[in-house]
Amino acid sequence: MAGRPGYVTLPIISVLAAIGYVYYTTVFLAIPAWLGLATAAGVANAAAYTALALACVATYGLAITRDPGRVPPAFVPDVEDAQTPIHEIKRKGGDLRYCQKCSHYKPPRAHHCRVCKRCILRMDHHCIWINNCVGHENYKIFLVFVLYVATASLYSMILIIGAAVHSAPKDEQSGSDSPRSSIIICGVILCPILLSTSILLGWHVYLILHNKTTIEYHEGVRAMWLAEKAGNLYHHPYDLGFYHNTVSVLGPNILCWLCPVSRNTGNGIRFRTSYDIPLSTSAFKKEEHLSMS
């Protein structure tokens, strides 16, 4: 892919190694030490955790390989379009946003990534752990991956704690603690993973509910400060309310919100704003269907 680093990097290898190590310790050490793989409970937990681990790997691969959404080279903003109530302009000069490096105009919410060396639609940030930008086309996949990892980490931590507590008396009697030591080491590794992914998940849930990207959040802090300084109130133009904000990212079908392959809403160039004419729920769904077709 032009303008993109190679897929396989040290952070990606580290993530895959961590997933493999945690999976092995959980399924082949923790579950046998606590429940036993020959029991119904052990088999059920091993199968459930294996499915969750496969979901983590699958969504991780999609987050790495899915194009985040590049700005079409022929894009030109139509300032006379009545359906576009606002246009983003440069802070200095007030001109329409134009990327000198890519030599084309930038749609609203698009930004140039110095690593990928191109403009990304609805860019949130560049993530070194997937060696890819998080943008309009892969944001939901990235979010679902973080959710799966946080859930798998919590599930693994519960199994590891149970195994460590249950195997302690047996290890003391036999004088051997090698499996228990490996389980405890895995638990120590899981602590920062669980903490960081939980915080990251909570942060992006907040952003989704307010229809913001990470870049827009930091820009909004400054805009709010400037507005308050001038005696005005700042309102994020893309905030449509919690429900419509969530639908705009995860899609109109609630049953597919956790599915990483469902189609995105819109094309990443034009977004509904709070300045648009209010639409009824049925009209909003019709607009989403047309934008997805």
Automatic annotation (TrEMBL):
It is found in: Membrane. GO terms for molecular function: protein-cysteine S-palmitoyltransferase activity. It catalyses: L-cysteinyl-[protein] + hexadecanoyl-CoA = S-hexadecanoyl-L-cysteinyl-[protein] + CoA. Its main location: membrane. Keywords: Acyltransferase, Membrane, Transferase, Transmembrane, Transmembrane helix. Residues 95-218 form the Palmitoyltransferase DHHC domain. Its EC number is 2.3.1.225. The chain crosses the membrane at residues 12-35, 41-63, 141-162, 182-209. GO terms for cellular component: membrane. PANTHER family: PALMITOYLTRANSFERASE ZDHHC16. Belongs to the DHHC palmitoyltransferase family. This is S-acyltransferase. It comes from Lolium multiflorum.
